[in-house]
Amino acid sequence: MRFASLALFTSLAFVPASASATEVTSFELENGMEVVVVENRRAPVVMHMVWYRVGAADEPPGVSGIAHFLEHLMFKGTDELEAGELSETVNRNGGSDNAFTAQDYTGYFQRIASDRLELVMSMEASRMDGLRLVPEDIGTERDVVIEERNQRVENDPGALFSEQMRAAQYLNHPYSIPIIGWMHEANALNMEDAMSFYEQHYGPNNAILVVAGDADPEEVRRLAEKHYGVIPANPNIVERERVSEPPQLAERRLEYADPRIGNDYVIRSYLAPERDRGAQEEAAALTLLAEVLGGSPTTSVLAQKLQFEEQKSVYAAAWYRGQSLDDTTFGVVNVPVPGTSLEDAEAALDQAIAEFIEEGVDPEKLERIKTQMRASEIYALDNVRGLANRYGAGLTSGLTIEDIEAWPDILQAVTEDDIIAAAKRVFDRRKAVTGFVRTATEEVTQ
Amino acid sequence: MIRFALTFVVLLGATAPANAAVEIQEVTSPGGITAWLVEEDAVPFTALEIQFQGGGSLDRDGKRGAINLMTATLEEGAGELDAQAFAVARDELAASFSFDVGRDGLSVSVRFLTENRDEALALLKLALTEPRFDEDAVARVREQILSGLRSDLNDPNTIAGLRLNELAYGDHPYATSLDGTLDSVAALTREDVVNAYGDVIVKDRIFVGAAGDISADELATIMDDLFGDLPTGGAPLPPPVELQLTGGVTVEPLNVPQSVALFGHIGIPRDDPDFFPAFVANEVFGGGGLQSRLSMEVREERGLTYGIGSYLVNWDHANMLLGQFATANDRAAEAIQVVLDEWAKIAAEGVTEEELDAAKTYLTGAYPLRFDSNASIARILVGMQADGLPIDYIETRNSKVEAVTLEDVKRVSERLYQPEALRFVVVGQPDGLEGVN
Question: What Rg value do the Cα atoms of chain B yield, rounded?
Answer without folding.
Answer: 23
